[in-house]
């Protein structure tokens, strides 16, 4: 199963000025024979909704033209996927299928932009980790997607055996001597550790990991950490004791604990920072309108989304500006606006600008972002202009 990648989402965001319709379909593949029922039912519902909408004829035509692509994708899906996301638009030449390793609810959306909120929510809410289990003689790498570790293929457990085979000069006697050396002087000069650093770096490069977890004896992980390049060293989210293993189930507990701890720490740190800034009214944007302004003006350094995912917003069909309220007419260019999901707008914009974003889970009993209207952002600079009265009026209330 291919994990969701940044690129996989980004190609869905690359048509900012298109006004033609896109069908976005999420299909639950875990339900036996669910799809036929789903398609028939959803078609009926959509047809009804579309008939009631203003752009009825165009929308109906687009829906019918693109549903066949959805059916085809479902018929042709490979086994193993728990769900499928299909984005189809004949008018744009878009036909993008994303197999999902997590269950989704059946959903069909017809809009002028792909409905990617479930993908983005997964991307931000369930980050991927690279896990290195290491001792003085072995390295084993795992990847955890959504907290489920998998052994990484192609990385031999006994890396030092490979080194010996590849480099005959690294003989048994030398290794024995080196082991003694390790005990006395640490592991920094060890060829095996350099090899380990390279293996970790190769796996890290180009992938979408939120952090690196180092497991092993404390003195070994500390030594490895010292040898990591700066970016990888900064990416280490935890070090913990762990005996050498190649079995994912042996590190599952560690990963879960580390992820929970990391999440808890991160949430506490972010909320502490937020409360400080709220107290001082300093470099903080509250609510979807201000957060979207900050993102669009490149002023946001961290976005924090509470438990809400259904904040209504709008997007100008002419200039493309996004609003955190259901505006009808764009206050900047007087263009007509379409209703959007402001949370999706914020998530996709944060992804595009590579702005860090934290999502609190949907099922929290209390929303820590309630006083901010569901979302806030830490800023590097205050707005250098104030929205005029018309903007303020247009984007408030309603
Ligand atoms: Zn506009």
Q: What would you say this structure looks like, in words?
A:
The chain is an alpha+beta fold. It has helices at residues 6-10, 34-52, 56-75, 117-125, 159-166, 172-185, 191-204, 218-227, 230-235, 248-280, 287-296, 342-352, 389-395, and strands at 22-28, 83-89, 94-100, 107-111, 128-134, 139-145, 148-151, 209-215, 236-240, 284-286, 300-305, 312-316, 322-323, 337-341, 357-359, 375-379. Helices cover 42% and strands 21% of the residues. Strands 7-6-5-8-9 form a 5-stranded mixed sheet, sandwiched between helices. A 4-stranded antiparallel sheet has the order 3-2-1-4. The protein has a 4-stranded mixed sheet with strand order 10-16-11-15, sandwiched between helices. The protein is globular. Residues 159-178, 180-185 and 388-398 have low confidence and may be disordered. Zinc ion (ZN) binds next to loops.
Order of helices and strands: HEHHEEEHEEEHHHEHHEHEHEEEEHEEH
Q: Average pLDDT, to the nearest integer? A: 81
Strand order of the largest sheet: 7-6-5-8-9
Q: What radius of gyration results from the CA coordinates?
A: 25 Å
CATH architecture of the largest domain: 2-Layer Sandwich
Share of residues in strands: 15-25%
Proportion of residues in helical segments: 40-55%
